[in-house]
Amino acid sequence: MNSIIKTSFAAFVAAGIVASATTANAQSLTGDLVIFSDMHDPAPRAVMNDMAARFGEMHPDLNVQVTIIDREAYKTQIRNFLTANAPDVANWYAANRMLPYVEAGLFEDISDIWDDQMSEELASTKGALSVDGAQYGVPYTYYQWGIYYRKDIFDELGLSEPETWEEELANCQTLLDNGIKCYTVGTRFLWTAGGWFDYMNMRTNGYDFHARLTNGEESWTSDEVRETFANWRTLIDMGAFIDDHQNYDWQEALPFMVNGEAASYLMGNFAVAPMREAGLDDDKLDFYQFVEITPGIPRGEDAPTDTFHIPTGANNKEAAREFLKFVVSAENQTLINNGANLGQLPVNAMSEVDDDKFLQQGFDMLSNRAPGGIAQFFDRDAPAEMAAAGMEGFQEFMVFPDNLDAILERLENTRLDSY
Amino acid sequence: MTISSDSYSQTQRGWYKRNEIAITPWLFLTPGLLFFFVYVIWPIWQSFGMSLYDWNGLGDINVNGTYIGLENYNKLFGLAGERADRNFQISLWNNLRWLVLYLLAIPAGLMIALFLNQNVRGIRIYKSLFFFPFVISQVVVGLVFTWFYLPNNGLFTVITNWFGFQIPGGVLGNPNTATYGIIVAGLWPQTAYCMILYLTGLNAVDPEQVEAARLDGAKGRKMLWYVILPQLKPATFIAFVVTIIGALRSFDLVSIMTNGGPFGSTRVLSFYVFEKSLSERGLQYGYAAAVAVVLFLIMLVFISYFLWAMYKEEKAAR
Question: Is-above-0.95 flag for pTM?
Answer without folding.
Answer: no
